[in-house]
Amino acid sequence: MTQVLRIAVVPGDGIGPEVIAQAEAALRAVAETAGRTLALTGFDWGAERYLKTGVTLPEGALDMLRQDFDAILLGAMGDPRVPDNRHAADILLGMRFQLDLYVNYRPVRLFHERLCPLKGARPQDVDFVVFRENTEGLYVMMGGNFKKGTPDEVATEIDLNTRRGVERIIRHAYAFARAAGRKRVVMADKSNVLIHAHELWLRVFKEVAAEHPELESRHLYVDNLALQLVRDPSQFDVIVTSNMFGDIVTDLAAGLQGGLGMAASGNIHPGKLSLFEPVHGSSPPLAGKDKANPMGAILTAGLMLEHLGWTEEARRMEDAVRWAVENERTTVDVGGTLGTRAVGEAVVQRLRG
Ligand code: IPM
Ligand code: MN
Fold it and tell me: How many A from CA of 342 to the centre of ligand 1?
């Protein structure tokens, strides 16, 4: 195969550059051993550049990315020197919205029971996927203030849900379930209280569910979903939910797989340029200390390969991380003693095997 994958790499802030360096090393190892070619091109977008130049996402950046790259790999955004994290909203949310990355794909997989805080939970019990709507809901930043700064202040935030937006993420969850051989789809909302916006979710869900009698469809209120995830995560194959609920539920889910250091995600528009980022943030206190867990970033790079059709290479990346977990080549957050670089090196060594 002569096809070259062109990846735009945005390490970002805090621990981003450290974990992304390990993800890049793993990508190079998996490509070289497969005799395939990857071109990784770095971009310095983030707090440092914003503080120096006032630029967040440079003008024309998205057109350039669409034209010259197959995918974007991002580390983390967030820096205490930018208190409102304006640059993060511009760069991360900017790409989600402007590239219309409506699928936030967050697989949740436990690699070893040692990593799960639930008593007796085994790897086969924690193996599901969350699809979070990624372009609307409470994230559209519509709303406002009235009488700001006075005791009578009023603040509103609009939860924007469109028929098109709700339908496309629900349909995506079903399409995934069918393709992946998953049997059960859960849609979580709060339609008992959000009687307009989430009644739309429930109605669309029922319509799409009726088209898939071969799959088990179940509706849960999101508070009950939180309870059920902790009580018995083995109930779940595919979960689909709104933007804000998905944000919260995927942090809880990350806890089931060993914490944010283990969690991977893709921001996807099927068939178009997509963005891959670990679920964790920039973690300023850990930055530059060789302590951050690179596994979330390495697994994220694996999701990116899977998305781009390098199925076998993606599987090898995940297997190498699982091997490192099983053999206790891990950072402190998941019970090990190694630093960021040593964990990355263990994974790379396994890949070069
Ligand atoms: C995530 C993050 C982001 C979100 C923040 C950094 C804006 O928490 O990707 O889960 O809320 O979507
Ligand atoms: Mn989050």
Answer: 28
Residues 149 and 209 in one domain: yes
pLDDT of residue 3: 82
For the chain, the domain total comes to: 2
User: Could you tell me the distance, in angstroms and rounded to a whole number, from the CA of residue 151 to the centre of ligand 2?
Assistant: 31
**CATH code for the domain of 176:** 3.40.718.10
| Closest ligand 1 atom to 104 CA | 9
Are 187 and 98 in a shared domain? no
**Cα angle, residue 117 at apex, residues 114 and 118 outer, rounded to 5°:** 105
pLDDT-flagged residues of the chain (< 70): 1-2
Same domain for 78 and 184, yes or no, is no
Active site residues: 139, 190, 223, 247, 251
Residue nearest ligand 1's atom 11 by CA: 247
Q: If you take atom 12 of ligand 1, which residue's CA is the nearest one?
A: 247
Residue 7 Cα to ligand 1 midpoint, Å, equals: 22
List, in sequence order, every beta strand (DSSP E) within 194-263. Answer: 216-221, 238-241
Question: Which residues' Cβ are closer than 6 Å to ligand 1?
Answer: 88, 92, 247, 279
Question: What pLDDT is attached to residue 2?
Answer: 54
Say whether both 277 and 341 belong to one domain: yes
Q: Are residue 138 and residue 250 in the same domain, yes or no? A: yes
**One domain for residues 287 and 328:** yes
Ligand 1, residues 90, 104, 134, 247: which to mutate, most atoms within 8 A of Cβ?
247
The domain in which residue 276 lies consists of 1-105+262-353
Residue-level pLDDT at 1: 45
CA–CA distance, 333 with 285 (Å, rounded to integer): 14
Token pair 């990593």 is found at 115
Least distant ligand from the CA of 278: 1
Flag whether 112 is in a domain. no
Cα(106) to centroid(ligand 1), Å: 12
Rg (CA), the chain: 20
